[in-house]
Design a protein that fits this description.
Helices cover 48% and strands 18% of the residues. It is α/β, with parallel strands linked by helices. The strands form 5 sheets. Strands 10, 11, 12, 13, 14, 15 and 16 form a 7-stranded mixed beta sheet that branches. Strands 6-5-4-9-8-7 form a 6-stranded antiparallel beta sheet. The protein has a 5-stranded parallel beta sheet with strand order 18-17-19-20-21, sandwiched between helices. Helix 11 (330-397) packs antiparallel against helix 12 (401-432). The longest helix has 77 residues, at 123-199. The chain is elongated. It starts with 5 loop residues before the first helix and ends in an 11-residue tail after the last helix.
Length: 895
């Protein structure tokens, strides 16, 4: 039997009650102590009927009724009946059918007897009345039975409801017990996950995560678990990428390298998740955009939990149910969120541990590298020092001039090598202190390469290696950048190539033009060799500080190991990059790019005016195809006709076929007929009227006699440069097109006669070296042992001196204070005021402190320029020319 509702039970009770009332029709409701009602049929006036009904005792009836209140049997008889009646008037004769209500302690028998006595009702009528009275109880009894039945039904209904309520309560308790057990199980699983993650090491973290997440996934009955990490991009949009995944249902998973945008995938999720809201429920209840993203992944239900780290929206975790539609319980959501945070904390903790371990290993590796570096530097420094000391002893003990000269040449080589080591260490120190800076100037790119080649050519010639160069004609003639540092990088790469390339190997230097944007040119330079090559493992260490491909002090090739690290820093400061392509036993290619502004120098023709160059015919003979191709590109760029021969025999064939040429470029060393023999044949055929230019990587002095005897007119060293080819053609045909800067040759002596300078230097041998080296310039030099002496000498005759070389660190008075005192003296004698004087003597600092702040400190003290120690006497001459020959009015002029 089902449980009746409250409305049904109430309706049933009301119906039963009304049925009971219907059964009691014609009966009075018992008042306090009243006896049953007895009815005698008769007639009575309507007035009395209305009054009785107005009293509310009986429902309206056609039977007349009178009643009394608390009447005893005696009181019923006599006048008391009339006095106690409900009406004031009664008829003298009571009609038949009159109804009396008798109250009080009168029994039924007494009542009837009283009625009989008063009204003289016959006995048989009274008996009929009794039978009628008995029948009148039947409706009342039915009503009572109906009411009792209603009560029974009510009790039954209440019983059933209590029973059903008991069953529901039992079910609630059972369900709640299941939820608590599940919640307890989830808590145990999360605790187990925490234990697994904390006990796992960094190498086993992935397996530990998979085990722990699988336990959680099976506990909540999900098929996939993802952790997504937020990424804020430069475009202002928030992306998310897969951070971790666990899959029970295998399908093509998300690529961890792919980043998705909230706006394109789930537009509402970013705002909702950042507010801490959850996405929970069947996929069918989600929006159309969300369903289109999730249904292809076969997801039935999903729970998305936002993750926050330090109150920042870090990302979210998603749990996919691919089998049923459901809502995840609140307890499940809370515990899954805690588990997700544990996962990302474990992963990040593992990454931090890995980074710390890596940093620790890097620090240890750096310490080991620096220890190895110090050991290597000890070896590298002691080697040239031993040579210097040993050759000095040999020279002192030798009486032969030739042997002394030999010792001096070896001392010079060892000194230059030692200086290179010291310069590398100083440069690396600048880089480590973040004080390495560039000094951009406008320079001629080709001239810079020529200087590099001049330095490296001697080493190449010693190992009899083949060296070629290629310069892209699109590269501007002049660029703005630090040409000294750029030359340093190229020199370092070429030196390594020469060092690691065996004898008779080949080396190439290629300079290419990549692009130009906003007057900024991108230049790519390659150094290609056929040397021993470098393994991939060694390549990873090449550009690191204090590291070498081979770090033992007994290594075969030597070197500081700093050159590539310094080169990398220089290239990066020039907005470029450097890399290597190499294979063992095949060779290496070092490539780097730089960015430099186009120079302001106006482009001009390389060949001189006044000659019809289209009529000039050139023949070039060389067995190297790369040299032939590059030479042909150069002369065609100059607008000169040229034929190319692969050897001497083909060159003779060209002459016999085409007649004589104006200029011949002949390689010295060719198979079969070499350049000397070819020159003799050319001269024999043309009676010496043609010009033969011999080209070779060999030293000119080694072949000069044979070449001149054969009829060679000029010599052009390899590798070839466009400007040198143009210059030698111009000189052969009597045309000059050199700029004023290029007209002066490096070998031309400087003449500073009648100029007098002060050299402030406290070390006697340094003063002696400067005096000796500058002796050929006829410069007059007065020496000062410290700053105080230099200040005194200048004060005694300020007009006498044109320049001061000022050492910085000196006893009694250093160079800074001496300079400040000199500037103060100048203001006193030339202006009389604190303003700048009308004349100012140039003061050049000489110091081993070459950091940027050291130079700035010299300038702040009042000095005009800086020279680093040990002195480069080429730079000394440059400073002398700049400050003595420019005749700048702010400086003192010669006497």
């Amino acid at each position: 039997m089902g449980i009746l509702s409250k409305e049904k039970v109430l309706a049933l009770i009301v119906a039963g009650f009304l049925a009971g009332l219907a059964g009691c029709q014609g009966r009075d409701i018992q008042a306090d102590g009243v006896c049953p009602v007895y009815t005698v049929y008769g007639n009575m006036p309507g007035v009395m009927q209305d009054e009785i009904h107005a009293a509310g005792i009986l429902k309206r009836s056609s039977n007349p009724v009178i009643y009394g209140t608390n009447l005893t049997a005696e009181a019923f008889r006599g006048d008391l009946l009339l006095k106690k009646g409900a009406v004031d008037t009664f008829p003298e004769v009571w009609p038949e059918g009159t109804v009396f209500y008798l109250y009080g302690d009168m029994t039924a028998e007494e009542s009837f007897r009283s009625v009989e006595a008063v009204f003289h009702i016959p006995e048989d009528e009274i008996r009929d009345y009794r039978a009628y009275s008995i029948r009148s109880y039947i409706p009342w009894l039915i009503g009572v039975v109906v009411l009792l039945f209603c009560v029974i039904i009510l009790l039954f209904v209440l019983f059933q409801r209590n029973r059903q309520a008991g069953i529901s309560l039992e079910q609630v308790v059972h369900n709640r017990t299941i939820e608590l057990v599940r919640q307890d199980r989830l808590l145990h699983v999360v605790n187990d996950l925490a234990t697994i993650l904390l006990s796992s090491d960094e190498d086993d973290l992935k397996n530990a995560l998979d085990r722990g997440v699988e336990m959680i996934a099976r506990c909540v009955n999900v098929d996939r678990v993802y952790v997504w990490k937020n990424i804020l991009k430069e475009d202002g949009q928030l992306y998310y990428a897969r951070f971790y995944e666990w899959l029970k249902v295998i399908r093509p998973h998300h690529d961890p390298l792919v980043e998705y945008t909230y706006q394109e995938s789930f537009p509402d999720w970013e705002a909702r998740l950042s507010r801490g809201e959850f996405i929970n429920g069947p996929v069918q209840r989600l929006s159309g955009r969300e369903r289109s993203q999730l249904e292809p992944l076969e997801v039935k239900s999903i729970l998305v939990v936002p993750l926050f780290l330090k109150d920042v929206f870090w990302g979210f975790a998603s749990f996919d149910d691919c089998r049923q539609e459901r809502n995840f319980l609140e307890e499940e959501v809370t515990i899954l969120r805690s588990g997700s945070v544990m996962i990302i904390n474990a992963i990040q903790r593992n990454e931090m541990a890995r980074h710390l371990k890596s940093a620790f290993e890097t620090a240890n590796e750096a310490n080991r590298a620096k220890s190895d570096f110090l050991a290597n530097m000890s070896h590298e420094i002691r080697t040239p020092m031993n040579a210097i000391i040993g050759m000095t002893s040999i020279a002192k003990s030798s009486a032969e001039i030739e042997r002394k000269d030999y010792c001096l040449s070896k001392i010079e080589d060892a000194s230059n090598h030692l200086l290179g080591i010291i310069n590398d260490i100083l440069d690396m120190s600048k880089i480590e202190a973040n004080k390495f800076e560039l000094a951009p100037t406008e320079f001629i790119f080709e001239k810079m390469l020529q200087r590099v080649v001049n330095v490296i050519n001697f080493k190449i010639d010693q190992k009899r290696q083949k060296f070629s160069i290629y310069i892209d004609k699109r590269i501007p003639r002049t660029l703005i950048g630090d040409d000294q540092r750029l030359a340093q990088v190229i020199t370092n790469l070429l030196s390594n190539a020469v060092k690691f390339t065996p004898e008779y190997g080949s080396i190439k230097l290629n300079a290419g033009f990549i692009k130009e944007e906003n007057n900024i040119c991108t230049i790519q330079i390659e150094v290609v060799d056929t040397g021993i090559g470098i393994s991939r493992e060694q390549q990873g260490r090449l550009f690191k500080s204090f590291q070498q491909a081979e770090s033992s002090t007994s290594r075969k090739f030597g070197g500081t190991g700093l050159g590539l690290a310094i080169s990398k820093r220089i290239v990066e400061m020039m907005d470029g990059r450097i890399w290597i392509e190499s294979e063992l036993d095949i060779g290496s290619t070092f490539v780097f790019t730089i960015q430099a502004a186009r120079g302001t120098e106006t482009k001009h023709g390389m060949l001189g005016p006044g000659i019809n160059w289209s009529n000039v015919r050139v023949l070039m003979a060389d067995d190297d195809p790369a040299v032939r191709e590059y030479f042909l590109e150069i002369v065609h760029g100059l607008g000169v006709f040229c034929d190319i021969a692969v050897d001497g025999e083909e060159a003779i064939n060209f002459i016999e076929k085409n007649g004589p040429y104006n200029i011949y470029f002949v390689d010295w060393k060719m198979p079969g007929m070499n350049g000397i023999e070819l020159t003799r044949k050319i001269k024999e055929k043309e009676a010496g009227n043609s010009i033969v230019i011999m080209i070779s990587a060999a030293e000119w002095s080694a072949i000069e006699d044979d070449a001149k005897n054969a009829g060679v007119n000029k010599f052009l060293p390899k590798p070839l440069f466009p400007s040198t080819v143009a210059d030698i053609i111009n000189s052969c045909l009597g045309a000059e097109n050199l700029t004023d800067v290029e007209k002066k040759q490096d070998g031309e002596p400087d003449n500073f006669e009648n100029y007098r300078i002060i050299l402030a230097e406290d070390v006697e041998i340094n003063r002696e070296i400067v005096l000796t080296v500058l002796e050929s310039t006829k410069l007059v030099i007065d020496c000062a042992e410290n700053g105080a002496v230099a200040l005194r000498i200048f004060r005694e005759a300020p007009e006498k001196y044109s320049m001061i070389f000022m050492d910085v660190q000196m006893p009694e008075m250093d160079g800074y204070e001496a300079t400040r005192q000199i500037r103060k003296f100048e203001r006193e004698i030339y202006s009389g005021q604190s303003s700048e004087p009308s004349k100012r003597i140039p003061i050049i600092a000489m110091t081993a402190n070459v950091f940027r702040e050291d130079i700035e400190k010299c300038l702040d003290a009042g000095m005009d320029d800086h020279l680093g120690k040990p002195l480069d006497f080429g730079e000394v001459l440059v400073k002398l020319r700049k400050y003595l020959l420019n005749n700048n009015e702010q400086f003192f002029v010669k006497e």
